[in-house]
User: Fold these one by one.
Assistant:
Number 1:
Amino acid sequence: MKQPREHRASGSPKPLIFNATPILYLCKIGASSVFMEISEEKYTTPKVIEEVVDKGKSLGASDAFIAEQLIERSVIRVRRPRNADFIDQILRISDLHRAEAEVLALAKELNGVAIVDESAARQVARIYNVRAHGTAYVLLRLVYEGKLSMESAREVIDKMISTGWRLTAEEYAKLMKELKSA
């Protein structure tokens, strides 16, 4: 079965460091079980937890409580990046939020993959030689590994889009083509 190039060539699995958007949308649409299917270590940062769990709970958002359960059960672990200077450097040269900068810093520190849906964050990641992909990459990986059906992946993507997740028509077409070839 075909797998994304980076996964095939990477050798040992790299930890995945999640930004707020993937956690928020997968929990919002009831697809938090996706996180249990991912075999790599999964991390996020305190600032992401503040955005997703703390702010979400104060608004009564059910996805915040689901995300909190993922953290409490150590499905996703919280880790603070050590290199504050690197975070400050990212923030000086870009318009990224602190949570995104923390995710990139932790991915660099752990030699992992930042899972960020914002294209600006992925562009900054390239500048600093940090591997970065979006939620769609994670879903495709699960399809390639036989842990998620093509139909289920499409359903997850469509539900995320219907709840506000952004994907251009071109990106959607490319993703659907990739799913069909999986």
Number 2:
Amino acid sequence: MEFLDQIICDDCLEIMAQMPDNTVHLAVTSPPYNLGINYDLHNDNLAYKQYLDWMRRVWLETKRVLVPGGRFALNIAPTGIKNFRPIHHDFANQLREIGMIFRTEIIWYKQTMGRRTAWGSWKSPTNPHIVPSWEYILVFNKDSWTLEGRSQDADITAEEFKRFSDGFWYIPPESQRRGHPTPFPEELIYRLIKFYTYRGNVVLDMFGGTGTVAVVAYKTGRCFVHIDISPKYCEIAAKRLELARAEQELPFSVSRTGRQVKGTFLFAGATKLNSRKKAKKLKQAQLLEPTEVYELEE
């Protein structure tokens, strides 16, 4: 596939339309919530019907590119107290209407209550508010509950399987935002990839942001397709991916040192902007950040 293992900077609908049918095993994303969040190069304040119509087109393309039995893990938070809309229900209804199988929902418990309050009415039933300290991961299948694969490519451990099959996941939010307002923590993506895919499968994030899905897919021996409309976010994703490659290729431990490593990413038309550094040359480059390294079972 043309876009395999690439950081692609373009509109997700335009790129997904060029992807072949039945080529993705897992799609993982958190779409813009349409709450006026300050994303780079995205209008996050559409009329609600326009927003839902746009997202439905994305879901249709997602279903098309998934293999039979392929999974879609959709991260969505309850909307704010003001002008509340049950966006998670609306998305679930859309996906069921286009024929996706609603498999389960995971509660991602973030425990962020200590940083904000929204009492509404204090110590009174007059108008008390509930502040969500969780987000949902809604999981859907295409056509079948079963994803075919070789047993030797299933790399989840017994302990991981037991822990991840409990649908209440306590994972703190990502502390390193890297210029993005709502980045995924790597642990969240690691669990979804290990639980729902085999090694060598293809993982798609059509709103890829700063590249967490691509990085974790690479670290766990999966292929990836990262799409985001923002050159700023794509450049950050490319640098993170280059660091992950360096950590696995270099014969020594990589840690924070400070100088920047050049990345590789694509604009529309698949034009390469920077050539990838060879591992031996990366010795002389200083790296931006420490990241987790996942050991792959042979």
Number 3:
Amino acid sequence: MEKALDLDHRIIASVVFVIITAVLLYPVSVPFPISSYGRNYYDFVHSIPEGSTVGFMLGDTPSTKPQMKPSTVLTMEILWEKNCKIIYWCDQAISIPLVYEYIEDAAAKVDRELEYGVDYVNLGYIAGEETGQAAFLKDIRAVTAGVDIYGNNIDELPIMDEVNDGSDMPYGFANCACQCTQPLYVRQWQMPYGAQLGTINCAMDLPAISLYLATGQIKGTANGLLGSAEMEFLTGNIGLAYGQTLAVSFTGVYFTILIFLGNIFYFATRSRRES
């Protein structure tokens, strides 16, 4: 027991490294409690009718990508499996490269060939924060000058037939990277046009949307890394987000065991010395 109490800290740290590495590389499915937010978000994605036109504001950034990408990509995959048509745009210029990446990753998971202009379209960066988003959702062609991110005339793209404002995208998602801009999309999209809205956000954004979740103005949220882990678990696509969550949990269990044994060994050793 005395030797255990004097255990070299490098050994303790090495075990932590082994636990984290093993769980990240080889995540295993274990019983996992799903939050009400995660369950509602998953149910909302699956409630969207087959073939619906879905608006998708993707505002992710490289710094928030690790926690928000998994739930974003899985959402896109589910929508395309339901033959939904997705209209993408960004409210941050830094998000544009991530749109390409997420589309490519999600499309690789779908069992059919997706066609640009039919299954999805990328309208690029919409500047102006709330004013810009309000104008875009009021008149898409006026704000985009009638072209997509590649300069294609959107009137020639089948997906944009009869789509010109927020009411023509009755279902929508806002990926808001720690900007707390979800209420913006409630004010400018859900309230004026009646869109059913889900969000993908950092965990720190949850207080900003709790009221809207309670009122049903936001149907559900994939909340940070936990939200991504919940989506991976519920869809059966166990990946990095679930692995990261398990790594935190398993490391916490490891330290709890160390603390428990350390106290036992300490008091047992002191009792022997006193006797």
